[in-house]
Amino acid sequence: MNPEINLWCHVLQQAIWDVAGIKVKLPQKEIPRLRRSARAWFLSSDETPGSFLWICHTLSLESAAVRKRVLSASPAALSLLVADAPSALSENSTFDSAQEVEEEENKTAVGF
Predict the structure, then answer these.
(1) 22: buried, middle or exposed (CB in 10 Å: 19+, 13-18, 0-12)?
(2) For the whole model, what pTM was predicted?
(3) Contact, 35 vs 28, CB < 8 A?
(4) Is 72 in contact with 79 (CB distance < 8 Å)?
(5) In the list 30, 35, 49, 94, which could disulfide-bond 65, CB 3.0-4.6 Å?
(6) In a 10 Å sphere around its CB, with 0-12 CB exposed, 13-18 middle and 19+ buried, how is residue 9 labelled?
(7) For residue 75, is the peptide bond before it cis, meaning its omega torsion is within 30 degrees of 0?
(8) Are 101 and 81 in contact (CB under 8 A)?
(9) Residues 13-28: pLDDT tens digits?
(10) What string of DSSP letters covers 51-107?
């Protein structure tokens, strides 16, 4: 994988973890602020280098689909969503697997 693509995949991966409040090395009281900040980054319309929209364009991802999946998924689903990252994030994914992960979690939760 191209090193630049790899870098931006990791940036997106970290942002997803930050939204979920997982894999964070911060005091517990700082996590809500981090989650709000990461959520704002996903919602931003900024297109400068390093922004959410710019990274999606660089990785050939559909930003609206990524935004919707990330901001509507549970923290558990998000942790699984990026488990195969960064390669899964750079293969023109529209994050369809997040819905599948949540469906599987729901089946497990109700014992199906």
Answers:
(1) middle
(2) 0.72
(3) no
(4) no
(5) 94
(6) buried
(7) no
(8) yes
(9) 999 999 999 888 899 9
(10) SHHHHHHHTT--HHHHHHHHHHS-HHHHHHHTTTTTGGGGSS---HHHHHHHHHHHH
